[in-house]
Amino acid sequence: MVAIAMLATAANAQAAQKELPKLSALIEPLRSGVTESQVFAELAAHNEQRRLALRGYSVLRTYQVIDLKGKVHAEEVGRMEFLAPDKKTFTVDSESGSGVVRHMALNPLINSEIEAAAGKEHHDSAISADNYSLDLLGEQQVGPYRCFVAKAVPKRKDKYLFEGKLWIDVNDYSVVRIEGHPAKKLSFWIQRADFVRQYQKIDGFWLPQKDETLVQVRLYGNKILTIDHRNYVVNAGQSNDARAIVPEAAIASTSSH
Fold first, then answer.
1. Distance CA 61, CA 6 (A)
2. Which residues is 154 bridged to in the sheet?
3. pTM of structure
4. How much of the chain is in helix, strand and coil states, percent to nearest 5?
5. What are 101-139's pLDDT values in tens digits?
6. CA atoms lying within 13 Å on the CB side of residue 19
7. Contact 1, 160 (CB under 8 A)
8. Which residues lie closer than 8 Å to 71 by C-beta, 6 or more apart?
9. Whole-angstrom Cα distance, residue 17 to residue 96?
10. How many helices and strands (H and E) does the chain possess?
């Protein structure tokens, strides 16, 4: 959700309408005995199991801000490293395009993720009964994953919550996909922000695969922020004595400027 807010400063040209990717598989009837309370309970239990087992990971990230004609206005590529319970660092491998967009949108987005991991800005955005009610719609295939499909209705107007749909794996009770928009308007400048996040299963852990956010910015039109997550390395060689992170200095660069 922070990614959506950070993109507001990245838009600088008008563009035509575009839709984010949709699923083609039909929604099938829900199996018997599945209830909202059961889904929330299983989500919480499985998430806690995975949290305790995940010591750390590293992932190659590609951030891009693109107009609806496909032109890349800014790109940043680097490796995000996470060490449980709350340490993240990002090392830039390459960057191109508008320095203003990178400085005003991409770098604050990366730093905000590091700060959130460290607990400096805690926001309760968990998919839980405290934050959402679920309207179970049925079951649907999402790539190789069989999922429960639910309409998620936030219980309060909060920009860190979303309104939309989510897909939950029927075996692992992990979120596989989310589609929606923020439950609260982000700012005067952002008229609409629609996003899709897809997850993937790697070594038993569900981790982000791709994020796409379509933002309509007042006076400036539409832009798309994409984040690709590739080449994960999970629970390999992490140490428990990681250094503390200062978010403003947490983005290291190996590229020339």
1. 17
2. 132
3. 0.81
4. 20, 45, 35
5. 888 778 888 888 888 788 776 677 889 999 999 999 999
6. 3
7. yes
8. none
9. 26
10. 4, 11
